[in-house]
Amino acid sequence: MKKRLGAILYNDFELLDAYGPLEMFGVLGEQVDIVVIAEQKGPVRSSGGPSTLAEYDFSDAPELDLILLPGGIGTLAELENDALLDFLKARAPLSEITMSVCSGSAILARAGLLDGLPATSNKMFFSLASSQSDAVEWREAARWVDAGRYVTSSGVSAGTDMALAVIERLFGTETAETAARFTEYQWHRDADDDPFKAYLNQADAAAIGG
Amino acid sequence: MKKRLGAILYNDFELLDAYGPLEMFGVLGEQVDIVVIAEQKGPVRSSGGPSTLAEYDFSDAPELDLILLPGGIGTLAELENDALLDFLKARAPLSEITMSVCSGSAILARAGLLDGLPATSNKMFFSLASSQSDAVEWREAARWVDAGRYVTSSGVSAGTDMALAVIERLFGTETAETAARFTEYQWHRDADDDPFKAYLNQADAAAIGG
Is the predicted ipTM greater than 0.90, yes or no? Predict the structure, then answer.
């Protein structure tokens, strides 16, 4: 059965948060239809520079079986954006699976969607997510956490491993393994194997360029 | 010194071929300026679905220190596209480093730019690249090959490892390691460690969805 996956983008989203998972779902061909949604239709600029075209806005987005919410520096502004929070509150509970990558879980937590559930976020800025709700069972050491309808991953690259785990749940192990092999990706299959927990809240280490 | 990186996109490019490397260069902040170039300005549709906005076309693309050429199913049409081949012939020899991912090396080889050099390509469709020129020293077992001005990588995910190696060459080991840590990416640092050589030309295994 074909699934429709909506990637919810906003200005200054982190490129690989979105495109790691979208690559893996994208190679499934006819099994998944990917649509891009943002508050306004048109180009959405990533923190890295390139802009992705949103085909739908919050008023005309189609029904979604799967939702993907990336993180990124743009998260900080979106935590105060009622239009996005309201869209997620309306749509995520109707989805089969809503996935977040990196600080995307901060937004889901702010919307109250993770209350009572286990969840994770990226390691260097973990407190950004965990400070959004005390009712979430935050897991500091996890590559991703599958809580059923909500699957949250740690930073950037962890989203790709999470996506393959979700593909395995939906379409079976062979499909996930074929997607990984086709993309020459060495899938980290253990959700609890998190080498980056050593950097918990060490955001200073993230200062690279400017 | 700031570098300008031009990502050359075309219809049906493979998302992660472009966005794995662009993520790594993107987190370098002020050290790298990323621009997106295509034969026509405007949306360029990936094989996975989402469209990226090209800000420049071949007539007004700025000078480029670095070039990134992704692969993907769209490669097949581009091998016959003189506009792209001519643009690469004009610009790649002026670049400091031109990188390809996956079947992107087939296009570089068709343009004659890899003649006399070692190079690689994705494993399942290796013959697509190797059939473009007998004057290239094709390496069947390599995650990526650094031939100086031209750095070619194997399939999809290998491009991310290649990008970190190029970042290391340009900006130093600490910068590359910080980029990997920031993106929670487990960098495969050995260019010759290629677990996907086992799938050489086994393209049938790539049939997943449709």
Answer: yes
Q: Which domain holds residue B153?
A: 3-207
pLDDT per residue as tens digits for the range A95-125: 999 999 999 999 999 999 999 999 999 999 9
For A175, the 3-state DSSP assignment is helix
Q: Would an 8 Å CB–CB cutoff place B33 in contact with chain A? A: yes
Residue A186 sits in a domain whose CATH number is 3.40.50.880
- Do residues A35 and A27 touch, judged by C-beta distance below 8 A? no
Cβ contacts of A25 within 8 Å, gap of 6 or more: A5, A32, A34, A66, A163, A167, B48
State residue A203's pLDDT score: 78
- The mean pLDDT value for B82-101 works out to 98
State if pTM tops 0.80: yes
Q: Which residues pair with A200 in a beta bridge?
A: none
Residue of A nearest to B153 (CA): A184
Q: What is the pLDDT of residue A202?
A: 87
Minimum distance, in Å, between the CA of residue B14 and any CA atom of chain A: 8
Q: What is the DSSP string of B107-170?
A: HHHHTTTTTTSEE---STTHHHHHTT-TTSEE-SS-SEEE-SSEEEE-STTHHHHHHHHHHHHH
The number of helix segments (H) and strand segments (E) in chain B equals 7, 10
Q: Which of B145, B61, B58, B161 is nearest to B97 (CA)?
A: B145
Close Cβ partners of B145 (under 8 Å, ≥ 6 residues apart): B118, B119, B120, B139, B151, B152, B153, B191
The 3-state secondary structure of A60-108 reads CCCCCCEEEECCCCCHHHHCCCHHHHHHHHHHHHHCCEEEECCCHHHHH
Indicate if the pLDDT at residue A34 is higher than 90: yes
Q: Which residues of B touch A49 (CB under 8 A)?
A: 22, 26, 33-36
Q: Which two tokens stand for residue B149?
A: 């001005």
Q: How many other CB atoms are found less than 10 A from the CB of residue B40?
A: 12
Contact A107, A78 (CB under 8 A): yes
Predicted confidence band of residue A53 (pLDDT cuts 50, 70, 90):
very high
The DSSP-derived string for A127-138 is HHHHTT-TTSEE
CA B103 to chain centre: 8
Give the total number of structural domains in chain B. Answer: 1
Q: What is the pLDDT of residues A61-82, one digit of tens each?
A: 999 999 999 999 999 999 999 9
Nearest CA-CA distance, residue A104 and chain B, Å = 14
